[in-house]
# Entry
Amino acid sequence: MEREFTCIMCPKGCLIKVEYEGTDIKNIKGDECPKGKEYVKNEITNPLRVFTGSVLVGNGDFSLVSVKTPSPIPKKYLKKIGEITRRIKVEAPIAISQVLASNLLGNNIDLIATRKIKKKISLSY
Amino acid sequence: MQEKEVIIIGGGAAGLAAAVACEQKGIKNVLIIERGNYLGGILQQCIHDGFGLEKFNTSLAGPEYAQRYIDQVKEKEIPFLLNSMVVSLTPQKEVTVINNNGYTHYQAKVIILAMGCRERTRGAIGIPGARPSGIYTAGVAQELINLKNYMVGEKIVVLGSGDIGLIMARRLSLEGAEVIMVAEKLPYSSGLPRNINQCLYDFDIPLLLSHTVVDIKGNGRLSEVTIAQLGKRGGIIPQGRRKIACDTLLLSVGLIPENELSREAGIVLDNITGGPQVDERGQTSIPGIFACGNVLQVHDIVDNVSLEAEYILEGVAEYLKGKLTKEQEINVELGEGLRYVVPQRLISRKDTIFSFRVNQPGRKKILLFEEGRRLIKKKSLRRVNPAEMVRIKLSSREVEGIKTLKVRLV
# Structure
């Protein structure tokens, strides 16, 4: 089988032409760095993506904290993780890289914070 | 009147990187002036990842990228003002700021313009039809969803394939909305190929090239848009019209550098980039006023904004030491195949980074730098795309003694 892939590993977006059978790469062209080959290998076996989204925060200086999965997860789980992030709520303060949810979908998928959230300062006059 | 060595207008990606670079150059008495109530600018609402691959060799979310710079600004105790609007900038580098303390006047030796850009709106592209609610620019929708916790709609059409529009198509899908399509007026996408792949194809969102919105209906809230196909010369094909029921229209139709202050100060702007015309050190037509980031030219990658800010600091440091001298000024002439080039002129013959955008997508192109008929440098480009800025360095040796410079793409 022959297919073209646009690599998503960096903004270069290399157009990679691949000839493969099943999960066996026979011929690969256009990959300008090793990341490209790895990306294509994953695409034809188990496509992986980093999930990014946001989670509601209680008592924070922002009402949402942005989150991501620390490593790429199977693409098929993206929407399910999206649904979960809409239901959970965490409390300020939050540090960057703090784990906000773990082992989601029983698949070792964690969510970590990508924004620092301070506690809301309540002003009393 | 307070005196400052350097005033940086804008506390986003460009301003923060410029401030940190000032510190690294040993420049003291710097002030960042930010209009919003937090540092980091647009990065704070760009919660997707992919930032920092070049600068930090890792993939970061926007707020993480911003925080790396904010931490340095705080650690180095570089002063900054929030909720503070620069209302006036003079050619003598006097700055007037308004905030909760009232008016403050500053006199700076150097001004760094880092005001970024804003989005083109419905008014700018003149879509006819009713004026219901439910029409947002993509960046405003991004701010509402990612920072303010407001969902913008349920059935969404995106007009324009700029990167923010593509990113928002994915974001809205993950938040449970139905993104019906992305329509793009041009026969090619104006976003990065990787974003077409991971934001549209991953979510089965169709991209309709050579299509645009020609009518809007809705009483109170948007209820329907009419999409039309465009012919080769950009005219509407009458039989290519169709009506699409939706409650939200997102516009991702281009960005405009915010140069009202620059214009007021009398800085000469470039008609194509919308930013100031600069020399190889990022210095505008007014000596001592420099520009970097999206206010100079709209970038597609934040890493390049940071690199540009660091790069112009060489010139800022030279200027403060009285060493930024005009040797011989020449204009950089723009030849075929290119939309623009930055810098627009050279005043010395130092190592220079040139930034370009091409006119249209292409394969196997060659970029030529020439002095008359003499070839100075050539660079082969495997693929070119208007969505991707090209940056190329000429060394001081290569530009030594040149009297003219022309760049073109063949």
